[in-house]
Write a structure and sequence with these properties.
Distance between the termini: 52 Å
Number of helices: 6
Number of domains: 2
Oligomer: single chain
Mean pLDDT: 88
Strand content: 25-35%
Radius of gyration: 20 Å
Structural class: alpha+beta
Order of helices and strands: HHEEEHHEEEEHEEEH
Largest sheet: 7 strands, mixed
Length: 282
């Protein structure tokens, strides 16, 4: 690193390694800053700041969507610095490493990074406009990484998941801390092993993740989601619990929700087309 090249808070902290293998090409937090510097724009800026945004102040209005994208890649926690006008400025703490990729918008002002105010992804992204900006930023980063790697083709991973219902509710599982996309919600399931049928994989994953035995029914739908270096083909089956009571065995949470409650939860990207279909009653 060229000395003095980076001006964000924590620029001299030890290098972090991505917890999501899809972002293995991101060497550390400084490499991510370089990538985002070419992506932050007026469109990804919070609406109330767009009139002040410029190429010279490109981190303005980008803090929360950037901090949660950093969390996707490196894990850790998102905290906030209270602002005089209300709300919080978001930053990241990963394994004791504290940094703020969007601190330069404050110029010479010194912020108090005391880790007293943890920020909830679900609360921030309950704001649909903010969530859409986060998805825009993430998509732009994914596209940039694909171009930088010259990936004309991706491998394909078969993933299976369960749609488990109780009356008008269905079950979702929250990804635990320490995993990529921690805090996001998804259907219980996982990767099919070599030589394993999707149905057998689903029975195994339900036993390992929530401690229940299921009977696998009909396929509900399937989707494909392209990460930077792999294409995930997710197949969702209807499933019925035959024994046990669902309990997260990996540290996340289990929730039973109605289709009308879907907007209250932030889902993994691959699951979003499915929950949209559920919300529409299809």
């Amino acid at each position: 690193m060229t000395e003095g090249r980076y001006g964000f808070y924590g620029a001299d902290t030890p290098a972090l390694t991505p917890v999501d293998p899809a972002y293995a090409a991101v060497d550390d937090q400084r490499a991510l800053y370089d990538l985002l510097s070419a992506i932050w724009s007026r469109e990804t800026c919070a609406p109330r700041y767009r009139g002040e945004w410029s190429e010279e102040n490109k981190t303005l209005g980008q803090c929360s969507i950037t901090a949660f994208l950093v969390q996707d890649i490196f894990g850790g926690e998102v905290y906030g610095v209270p602002l005089a006008g209300g709300g919080y400025h978001c930053y990241n703490v990963v394994n004791g490493v504290r940094f703020d990729l969007t601190s330069e918008q404050f110029g010479e002002e010194k912020l108090l990074y005391d880790d007293k105010y943890p920020q909830s992804r679900a609360e921030h992204f309950a704001d649909e406009e903010k969530r859409n900006r986060y998805l825009m930023l993430k998509k732009a980063l994914d596209e940039k990484l694909c171009l930088s790697r010259g990936q004309a083709a991706r491998g394909r991973r078969e993933v299976v998941a369960a749609l488990i219902r109780r009356g008008d509710r269905f079950m979702i599982l929250q990804r635990p801390e320490g995993k990529a996309r921690a805090g996001l919600w998804e259907f219980v399931g996982g990767k099919a092993e070599a030589g394993e049928s999707l149905q057998d994989a689903l029975v195994r994953e339900c036993r390992e993740e929530i401690g229940v035995t299921v009977k696998v029914g009909a396929m509900y739908t399937d989707v494909t989601y392209d990460y930077p270096d792999i294409s995930v083909h997710l197949t969702l089956f209807e499933a019925t619990i035959t024994s046990g009571e669902p309990t997260s065995l990996e540290g996340g949470a289990v929730a039973w929700i109605t289709p009308g409650e879907i907007p209250n939860y932030t889902f993994c990207p691959a699951d979003e087309p499915i929950v949209k279909r559920l919300a529409e009653g299809k």
